[in-house]
Design brief:
Strand content: 15-25%
Strand order of the largest sheet: 2-1-7-4-3-8-9
Oligomer: single chain
CATH superfamily: Glutaredoxin
Radius of gyration: 19 Å
Largest sheet: 7 strands, mixed
Number of helices: 5
Shape: elongated
CATH class: Alpha Beta
Order of helices and strands: HEEEHEHEEEHEEH
Length: 188
Amino acid sequence: MKKTLLVVFTVLALVLATILADRATRVRPKVDNIVTKTDSTSTGLPEPELTLKDLDDKDVSLSQYKGKVVFVNFWATWCEACKVEIPFLIEMHQKYGQKGLVILGVSMDEEGKSVVAPFVEETRWDVNGQKLPMNYRIVVGNEDAADKFGGLIGYPTSILMSRAGKQIKRITGLISYEEIAKAIESQL
């Protein structure tokens, strides 16, 4: 009986210590007027100079999207939270693409195009009852690309940029469709 209680107490103590350590070391985002799960330290910064290759080996530069609202989404094929957001992004691209929204998916898979291209080609996503492919531009990212946006502490990480090329919001982790839509709509 004493051994069982000791094991239970030890497990509870470890769980509590883990929770407290997580809270103590977590980056605390500032609350602003659009999305509460954001890091506003990058708000107002200009978009970085960035050129990456898409899945057709064509150069894609952020500067080519001047005058458009750009939603840069850092993701990976193995990231479960990223897979939850992908249908949202497909729907957002359908809904707002004609109004000036560009969604740029930056894959951070270490294996690069050899893993990302088949994933994008073969995977279909449930979007309002339809099985759809990723319909927005995908580029292959790297640590340099992440560093230009101030580094990443997790996936997905998204940065919303205004038509003027200023970083408006930085979102780390999974957010809801409503939060993404509200942030984007505020810029269109």
